[in-house]
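Recall the central idea of this unit: under ordinary conditions, the amino acid sequence of a chain determines the structure it adopts. In this exercise we apply that idea directly, starting from the sequence alone.
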Amino acid sequence: MIFITGPLYSGKRQYARNFCGDGDMITEVQDLAARCADLPALADDLARRYKVIIATEIGGGIVPVDEGQREARDKAGRLSCMLAERAETVVRIFCGLPMVLKGDLP
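Accordingly, the structure predicted from this sequence is:
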């Protein structure tokens, strides 16, 4: 599995199409984390089902005042760590430029 992460509108989805079709990838998985009670099970399920998983980095800005929003950001970050651990390849996209953080590209 390839895990791709980076900020909004950085070219993650376009880059992922180099490795698979839309049916083999899932995007915006950070949104799934907010509603999930079992993050390790979610990470296992996603890693098993998809060739490419894309998460938008959401923790780099101002910390929200709302406790629920803070918890959602924390869970999104933990899910990203779990997915990176399970991935053969991890890529961070910034300004459309891929940076391989783990493994090798196919």
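The radius of gyration is 13 Å.
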